[in-house]
Inverse folding.
């Protein structure tokens, strides 16, 4: 009996351990019993239809029209794909450090290294213009659904409908631009085109840098800590909008809170989430899982390894390389985390249940069924057709992101040679084009490494007996094949390239150069496949719009539309969560940053400036640095203000935890967290660490004193 009891206890323990060890993957749950949850489609509410009744019921918060207008017009969007907001009446702007990181080199003077050393303008005169940086303020919102959809109904084919739609959009924008020339108009599709909104933006194009911390302070922990929590990053930046050479004056800005946050406190994120695919059908999701994401994850993984090796070789002293590494590492975590979610049977089961319920609602309504009932099967057929050539398209594609310049040079050279042969350009034009073909910034070490990436794509996506694989790789490793191609090629130096080009188009088109061979044996076939794919894309665009229309017909405003890179209002609460066998606190402090620094022996990427070893007496390391909330955010939300019910800034959104990565397809509330820089931490650092008194006073007062 005692043995039986002991056996039962052991068995139960094993079951429980297996359950909890599985984290987000609940393999012990029958997927057929899993149900969709209320907010699976997210909480990215539009300003056209804010859920006032829900806010009041959930949080005792009923924002007035005036307060909603303040939320809307205080928020900003940058042309670099981030969010931002006004934080003073004198045009002071808050966003993330990583949102301006790529612009910092453009404002440097002499031997300055702003990524390494940070920047603070002690006066207005010292604020530096950031070239090509703009911010947009949403000032007009208008529903134009009927105008566009009525016009589209006149089209006979999918391509015609899309052309009519695009022409109608241009017409609406022009009409409104003529009436309001000071406003930039854009039209965004909501619910995949189920609804359309006209957005009018006030654009500020004179943006100047006020303050950024050092890169290693903003992104302590680098890629290992990216998409994790607890976090210890001062990921903030402050800019200013100017007009006519003077700081702008605005009535719309967020005030700064001096109280911080507490557990279960309601908070609101106002920003511009870049894009989600939560409305996608299971056929589309399965295509992403089986085809798209494995390709992308593999490529980013190889790219990351290349740049990590180069950063190591330079002993983490080349900040341009480090910034590139961080960018690629971020993308790798996003795609790999999303891919992992697509493999999770629990998450997939929730998506399947939502689709089942949605389809049943459509099928039960004769009118909806007649119009929308076939959408799912048609999308499934289309995605299955897309699978046929997907791998070959990937193998034949020359990308400006991951392909080495050898291939881009070869493609251009072949195009020029064909144009000369067909008398489309003169010999003089041909000579001038080919003379400028070799890149001025050619980095042979990098290009040689990227060649291995490209060859791995070819090898992994084509059959072993494919002529391209046999010719370029054969039975060699891709590293060996890359070395052999480089030895055989005339595209490895400007002199060799120009020498071959100078001999005329025959020399190019009959060349045995391996890169030219690749182009000649792939690009025509690639164009044919891409043309076929475009026909599918056109068809799916119309089907996706019908899917969005159906979703809105069934659920109305209860389900927000997918993110579209436009302004949204997301609710949540400050909340810890269970992870790694323990409990994540709602906040971290500067003490935690110091611990990270010392625990990793001050080694990259856990580096802080040396002055952190001797902090000013007035600086309080116990001040909250980061905190977490349950708000629904994705890429594009970086730089969003995090606000309390009084529209006061309590934080700045800069990341999500690893559990948030499935959010492209589903919003889960169990452990999905937004990671924010604390308003208290920003103020403490600006005032007492960096001694940026002018900035701290403006933030506190909401204006320049």
């Amino acid at each position: 009996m005692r043995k039986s009891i002991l056996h039962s206890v052991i068995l139960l323990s094993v079951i429980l351990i297996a359950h909890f060890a599985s984290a987000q993957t609940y393999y012990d749950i029958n997927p057929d019993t899993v149900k969709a949850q209320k907010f699976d489609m997210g909480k990215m509410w539009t300003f056209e239809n804010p859920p006032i009744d829900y806010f009041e019921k959930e949080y005792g918060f009923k924002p007035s029209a005036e307060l909603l207008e303040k939320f809307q017009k205080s928020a900003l969007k940058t042309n670099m794909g981030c969010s931002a907001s006004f934080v003073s009446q004198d045009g002071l702007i808050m966003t993330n450090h990583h949102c301006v990181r790529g612009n910092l080199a453009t404002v440097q003077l002499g031997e300055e290294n702003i990524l390494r050393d940070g920047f603070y303008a002690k006066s207005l005169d010292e604020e530096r213009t950031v070239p090509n940086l703009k911010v947009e303020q949403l000032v007009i919102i208008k529903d134009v659904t009927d105008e566009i959809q009525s016009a589209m109904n006149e089209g006979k084919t999918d391509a015609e409908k899309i052309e009519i739609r695009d022409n109608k959009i241009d017409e609406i924008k022009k009409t409104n631009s003529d009436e309001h020339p000071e406003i930039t108009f854009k039209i965004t599709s909501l619910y995949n085109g189920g609804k359309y909104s006209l957005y009018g933006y006030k654009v500020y194009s004179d943006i100047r840098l006020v303050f950024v911390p050092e890169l290693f302070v903003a992104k302590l922990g680098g890629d290992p800590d990216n998409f994790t929590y607890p976090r210890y990053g001062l990921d903030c930046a402050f800019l200013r909008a100017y007009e006519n050479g003077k700081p702008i004056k605005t009535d719309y800005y967020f005030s700064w809170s001096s109280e911080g946050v507490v557990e279960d406190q309601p908070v609101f994120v106002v920003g511009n989430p870049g894009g989600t695919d939560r409305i996608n059908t299971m056929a589309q999701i399965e295509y992403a899982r089986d085809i798209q994401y494995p390709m992308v994850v593999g490529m980013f993984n190889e790219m990351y390894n290349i740049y990590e090796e180069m950063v190591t070789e330079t002993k983490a002293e080349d900040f341009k390389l480090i910034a590139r590494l961080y960018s690629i590492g971020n993308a790798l975590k996003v795609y790999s985390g999303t891919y992992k979610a697509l493999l999770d049977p629990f998450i997939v089961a929730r998506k399947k249940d939502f689709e089942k319920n949605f389809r049943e609602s459509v099928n039960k309504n004769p009118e909806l069924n007649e119009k929308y009932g076939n959408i799912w099967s048609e999308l499934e057929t289309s995605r299955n057709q897309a699978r046929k050539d997907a791998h070959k398209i990937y193998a034949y594609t020359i990308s400006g992101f991951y392909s080495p310049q050898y291939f881009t040079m070869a493609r251009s050279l072949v195009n020029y040679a064909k144009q000369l042969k067909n008398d489309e350009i003169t010999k003089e034009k041909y000579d001038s084009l080919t003379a400028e073909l070799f890149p001025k910034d050619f980095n042979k070490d990098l290009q040689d490494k990227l060649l291995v990436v490209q060859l791995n794509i070819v090898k992994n996506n084509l059959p072993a007996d494919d002529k391209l694989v046999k010719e370029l790789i054969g039975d060699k490793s891709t590293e060996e094949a890359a070395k052999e191609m480089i030895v055989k090629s005339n595209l490895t130096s400007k002199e060799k390239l120009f020498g071959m080009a100078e001999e005329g188009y025959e020399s190019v088109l009959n060349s045995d150069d391996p890169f030219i061979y690749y182009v000649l044996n792939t690009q025509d076939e690639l164009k044919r496949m891409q043309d076929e794919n475009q026909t599918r894309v056109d068809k799916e665009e119309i089907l996706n719009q019908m899917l969005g229309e159906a979703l809105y017909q069934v659920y109305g405003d209860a389900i927000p539309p997918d993110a579209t890179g436009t302004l949204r209002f997301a609710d949540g609460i400050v909340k810890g969560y269970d992870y790694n066998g323990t409990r994540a606190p709602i906040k971290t402090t500067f003490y935690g940053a110091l611990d990270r620094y010392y625990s990793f022996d001050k080694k990259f990427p856990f580096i802080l400036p040396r002055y952190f070893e001797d902090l000013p007496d007035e600086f309080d390391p116990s001040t909250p640095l980061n905190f977490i909330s349950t708000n629904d955010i994705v890429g594009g939300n970086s730089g969003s203000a995090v606000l309390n019910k009084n529209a006061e800034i309590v934080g700045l959104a800069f990341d999500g935890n690893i559990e948030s990565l499935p959010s492209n397809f589903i919003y889960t509330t169990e452990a999905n967290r937004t990671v924010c820089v604390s308003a208290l931490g920003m103020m403490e650092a600006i005032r007492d660490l960096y001694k940026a008194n002018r900035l701290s006073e403006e933030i506190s007062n909401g204006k320049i004193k």
Observations:
- The longest strand covers residues 195-204.
- Residues 1-27 have pLDDT under 50 and may be disordered.
- The radius of gyration is 28 Å.
